[in-house]
Write a structure and sequence with these properties.
Number of domains: 3
Number of strands: 16
CATH topology of the largest domain: TIM Barrel
Strand content: 5-15%
Helix content: 40-55%
Strand order of the largest sheet: 1-2-5-14-15-16
Number of helices: 19
CATH class of the largest domain: Alpha Beta
């Protein structure tokens, strides 16, 4: 018996290495007896190794191997169908887990910068106000100051002889080097290799020619499609060639390892780290202390979590690349609903939901083939969205509703005795040592978060406003610092989480929220 499209009662299953698909199979009969109509699954696409929650996805098109494989997933889906239970997946389109050594898109971006095919997948400002960061992405993953960690030997250059590539490691994080910078390592002390092999040795000439070939790769900032394709193709050819050379002539591999050891320096000898610093300075990224992120980060994060990088889901190619597996599961009849995580993180949620609904509808129409015509079956789609006070779900989102935070908040009120407010106020005031006004406290906390945790994001908005101001003679005397203060005040006075203004689209609700924030900010 097929489940109803709209859930009667859901039960959350939190998948991770300690609770797998096979563990869930054993629970399905019990959930049916409870009266559950749909299993609501936490994210089970491939996430960071050891993730307890699954929201740090590193591959949207693979199952998390710690939870199960295709066969165990099939057993789970079959068990649900056998007991008439539906299947809802918690899906994360807004961001991916980055850092580590497991996100292929992110690693390609670090290696190739703006020449990477994924440079526009992540929401990165490649032209920030900070000149030293232009054409680079700030990587605030270090546990201390960059210079201190470098000279302590905690940033470690390594050569993968089987792949013919160089990377710098810090703890579990791998930072691939731009292949154009390989010659700085390959050619250091070349006279030593010449002496060992002999000046007329063919392998030596081959090695030198290969080093030159790395130098001639198109630069990271090339924009011509042909040049980008040339770089993507040739860098891999050259790396394979280097690996083959090392395998064919062990003395070349030994020479490279000697150079790597030399670049890694000797703690206590400050100058011994100069060359590794020079190599890192030539990359498409700048390694930094994690606290630097608050002021200088130039990629969008999930709030202030540095290793969750925002995706540009408004780009059709990004949407297509991240939804292949989910749409395949819909086509195979293995999914009955999606809960879209952090919809407010998306640039334009309305357009995202519209595209997703259209793709799902087309998929279901092909699969259903209803006799005598008719329409495709409905599909349950909800948005994770917190509604505040009188705020309503945005008109035009093609979803069945929110995930129910507003309802849960209303139900929670049943357990609050309003007659106790005076006593609670007195206890709270005694605890914090003052009688606080909630609205004023909220206002101050918003300002604190902007300055302490999201200063870089605030600066980016201020730069945008300053650019608008400088484009008109009536507003060009508004300073950048003044624009920053105005934006901060406006945000602190904003009555809801965000607006949904898009190109040629401003709703009455959005207009009312902005005007209310401006009026309050002026006060």
């Amino acid at each position: 018996m097929a489940p109803d499209p709209i859930p009667r009662a859901t039960y959350r299953l939190q998948f991770n290495r300690q609770f797998t698909f096979d563990d869930a199979v054993a629970l399905v009969p019990y959930l049916q007896e409870l009266g559950v109509s749909h299993c609501y699954a936490s994210p089970y696409l491939k996430a960071r190794s050891g993730s307890p929650h699954g929201y740090d996805i590193v591959d949207h098109n693979a199952l998390n191997p710690e939870i199960g494989d295709d066969r165990s997933f099939g057993r789970f889906v079959t068990a649900l169908a056998r007991h008439g239970l539906g299947h809802i997946l918690d899906f994360v389109p807004n961001h991916m887990g980055v850092g580590g050594d497991d996100n292929a898109w992110w690693l390609d971006l670090l290696e190739n910068g703006q020449a990477s095919p994924y440079a526009d997948f992540f929401d990165i400002d490649w032209h920030p106000h900070e000149k030293a960061l232009r054409g680079k992405v700030l990587i605030p993953f270090l546990g201390g100051y960059y210079g201190d960690l470098l000279e302590n030997g905690e940033l470690h250059l390594a050569f993968d002889a089987q792949r013919g590539e160089f990377s710098v490691w810090y703890l579990q994080h791998r930072f691939p080097l731009d292949p154009r910078t390989y010659p700085g390592i390959l050619e250091y002390g070349l006279e030593r290799l010449t002496e060992r092999l002999g000046a007329d040795q063919p392998r030596l000439a081959e090695y030198q020619s290969l080093s030159t070939a790395f130098t001639h790769l198109p630069a990271r900032r090339e924009t011509a499609a042909a040049k980008l394709e040339e770089r993507r193709r040739d860098k891999e050819v050259h790396k394979r060639h280097l690996a083959e050379l090392c395998a064919a002539e062990p003395r070349i591999g030994a020479f490279i390892e000697e150079n790597v050891a030399s670049l890694n320096g000797e703690p206590g000898e400050v100058a011994s780290f100069d060359r590794l610093h020079e190599v890192l300075a030539g990359q498409a990224y700048r390694l930094a202390y994690w606290r630097v992120a608050a002021d200088e980060i130039n990629y969008r994060r999930f709030f202030d979590i540095n290793d969750l990088a925002g995706l540009r889901m408004e780009r059709p190619e990004v949407f297509a690349a991240t939804h292949r597996l989910v749409l395949q599961l819909v086509a195979e009849g293995k999914l009955d609903g999606l809960r879209i995580d952090h919809a407010d993180g998306l640039y334009d949620p309305a357009s995202y939901f519209t595209r997703l609904r259209m793709e799902i509808h087309a998929t279901l129409a092909e699969r259903a083939e209803p006799p005598g015509g008719g329409t495709a079956p409905d599909f349950y789609l909800v948005a994770e969205k917190i509604l505040i006070g009188p705020e309503r779900l945005v008109d035009g989102w093609p979803v069945q509703g929110t995930t129910g935070y507003d309802f849960a908040n209303a139900v929670n009120d049943l357990f609050v005795n309003p007659a106790a407010q005076r006593d609670l106020d007195r206890i709270y005031a005694r605890f914090i040592g003052q009688h606080g006004d909630f609205a004023e406290m909220l206002f101050q906390c918003k300002q604190l978060v902007m300055e302490a945790q999201l200063s870089s994001e605030l600066t980016m908005l201020a730069d945008m406003l300053d650019g608008i101001a400088q484009s008109d003679r009536h507003t060009r005397d508004f300073t950048r610092n003044g624009c920053r203060g105005a934006v901060a005040m406006l945000v602190a006075c904003f009555p809801v989480y965000r607006s949904y203004i898009a190109a040629n689209r401003v709703s009455e609700d959005d207009r009312r929220y902005v005007e209310a924030a401006v009026a309050q900010a002026k006060k």
